[in-house]
């Protein structure tokens, strides 16, 4: 039995599919990660506390709240990515998803009175409730995207 010819391997349907699809995958990933970055940045600008500074100071509540925001944004963005067929789709649904999530996040922040002060004080219980509300919203929005 002889070893397969290198040219025949490179010309195989699997290698050609990878060569065609991988750049598209990278582009879709890049657009989605950019949307995540923009959403997280906008959220941090919207909040009355400075998450990054508090995290650097070792504030566990702020770290938990920030992690909840990242996962809360990523879940519907991931669903948006999976149901989209082009970069244009990803951008349209991704922007809509981020906007809705930021709106709901802001509403949750407003409903949980005194949240900013509790996060600054490092109250993990407040952060856990905040994360729960944000993740619940992310799951519902994710399901709505597939409807």
Q: What does this protein structure show overall?
A:
This protein has seven helices and no strands. It is an all-alpha fold. The protein has one domain (6-146). The mean pLDDT is 88.
Concise account of the structure shown:
With 147 residues, the chain is an all-alpha fold. Helices cover 84% and strands 0% of the residues. The chain has one domain (6-146).
The Rg value, from CA coordinates, equals: 20 Å
Mean of the pLDDT scores? 88
Shape: elongated
Give the amount of beta strand, in percent. under 5%
Tell me the major beta sheet.
Answer: none
Euclidean distance between termini CA atoms = 52 Å
Supply the helix-strand structural class. mainly alpha
Task: Give the number of DSSP strands.
Answer: 0
**H and E order:** HHHHHHH
- Helix segment tally: 7
Which segments are poorly predicted (pLDDT under 50) over 5 or more consecutive residues?
none
Could you estimate the helical fraction of the residues in percent?
Answer: over 70%
Return the domain count: 1
Topology summary:
Layout: H1 6-10, H2 13-46, H3 51-56, H4 60-83, H5 87-111, H6 115-120, H7 124-146
Helix pairs in contact: 2-4, 2-5, 4-5, 4-7, 5-7
